[in-house]
Amino acid sequence: MKPEKESFAQQEDAAPLGNKGWAIADLGSNTFQYAAGIKEGDEILIPYRKKTGVKLGKDGMGLKKILPEAQSRAIDTLLEFREDFRRLEIPDGQVILYGTSAFRNAENCTEVMDAVNKATGFSVEVISGEREAELIFEGVAGSGALHENENQLIADIGGGSVEFILCRGKKALKKYSFEIGGLRLMEKFHTIDPMPGYRQQELKQFASGALQLLWNELKDIRIDALVGCSGSFETLAIMDLARTGRNVAAAEEMSWLPLSADAFCSLAGELKDLPLEERLKIPGMLPLRAEMMVAAILLIEVMLEKTAARQIRMSAYSLKEGALIQKLR
Length: 329
Known about the structure:
By secondary structure, this protein is an alpha/beta fold. It is 43% helix and 22% strand. The protein has 2 domains: 4-127, ATPase, nucleotide binding domain (Nucleotidyltransferase, domain 5, 2-Layer Sandwich); 147-320, 2-Layer Sandwich (Nucleotidyltransferase, domain 5). Helix 1 packs parallel to helix 3 (109-120) and helix 5 crosses helix 13. The termini are far apart.
């Protein structure tokens, strides 16, 4: 299996960022992605992004290993990223790679990092779930998706873990990380495609129980908005634009988008009973998200049922943008 490519910012005619440029790569359990930017005056510019479906955790989550095939896909992708960074003239010392759930839970993490370093020259910094949530919050806060005087629950559904940040306005109150990401849920429950209704219910019951600590914390708090980060939320927002005839290309330039609860329910109702080949045909569906989308939708349904959030917003900024904002600021 080759990595799936999905780039919002093609690099062929990229203007170099030079010595002031920085790049942050988020090496997720499902997707590797980077953001590259620069500070000009008081403004932080992030003109370059790329995402590639690597499936680092595929078939290895339960074994607590990164399998050789996944390691090869990771190295191939990082070699491509390295060429992009060189074309952008970003110094090697200003490229940072963060490893998340698949790395921190793999018993062979050290040997995989050594293999990556030998093949690419990159060192991977494996971060905790708490640090991941911190960087995600920085990204969302920088996107404009957070509104003053609202209680908001930020959710970032990764392949291996899910991070939540409870915030009031633009102030983070509590951060959480749970190892129940979309790829883990998919491999546990989505063993038949399309996923039967009884398996969908089993997934939701499992996820609800695994997140009980979060629900206990939120039981006396009214959540005004669920703010979802990139990934599945971004795909849903783009699909909503596509089916209503709005400009999808323009959405790729926006840092956040609203997604009505009605639009989500309609998309969820359509998507979760479709096989993969039919999900791929839906306008706006990103191929690298299609396989994990049903598990992600069911997890979002649990979030909405438990919080009764009245609004959904999508932040295109997440971990990599948050880390980049921290560095450039």
